[in-house]
Backbone:
């Protein structure tokens, strides 16, 4: 099986295609999303700063990755990205930001990943793509599934304050967010 915690050396990086250019300054849509903590979160109504890292899908060690997964620019790296946000979680909180991960996987699938990876923050499920459609997040298709392209949004009081896109390499994203927060204190 594939080691999900490691990034292949020859992983193709995504290009900035402009698909997130509309996001800075956008109002976050009011779309309550189920969480791995067993509750619902409406990102539009959260006070303060929120880091929302959007990722395609978390793999499982007992299942093969979709065919050609490593060849899709920006697809691989959800586990390393989530683990980096886990490892920097206390620093992100100290910088005044809460953290959520978001994918189209259902909450039960995400709950397994959150437990296995020991994530100290909830994952949000947008299985019906309602949030993604309302915010016009970029997507791609794999094996009949619509997945979200990797993007990290800095939200403040229900507005997109900053966008990290494309995100590459994904395991460096949490450190990049911390550096941005240090340069832009609340």
Residues:
């Amino acid at each position: 099986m594939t080691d999900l915690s490691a990034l292949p050396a020859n992983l193709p990086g995504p290009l900035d295609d402009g698909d997130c250019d509309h996001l800075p300054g956008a109002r976050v849509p009011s779309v309550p999303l189920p969480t791995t903590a067993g509750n619902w979160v409406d990102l539009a109504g959260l006070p303060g700063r929120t880091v929302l890292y959007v990722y395609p899908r978390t793999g499982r060690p007992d299942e093969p990755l979709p065919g050609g997964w490593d060849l899709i620019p920006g697809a691989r790296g959800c586990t390393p990205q989530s683990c980096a946000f886990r490892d920097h979680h206390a620093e992100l909180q100290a910088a005044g930001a809460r953290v959520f991960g978001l994918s189209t996987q259902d909450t039960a699938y995400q709950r397994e990943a959150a437990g296995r990876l020991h994530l100290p923050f909830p994952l949000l499920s947008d299985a019906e793509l309602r949030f993604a459609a309302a915010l016009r997040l970029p997507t791609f298709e794999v094996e009949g599934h619509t997945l979200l392209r990797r993007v990290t949004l800095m939200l403040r009081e229900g507005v997109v304050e900053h966008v990290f896109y494309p995100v590459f390499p994904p395991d460096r994203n949490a450190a990049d967010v911390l550096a941005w927060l240090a340069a832009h204190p609340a």
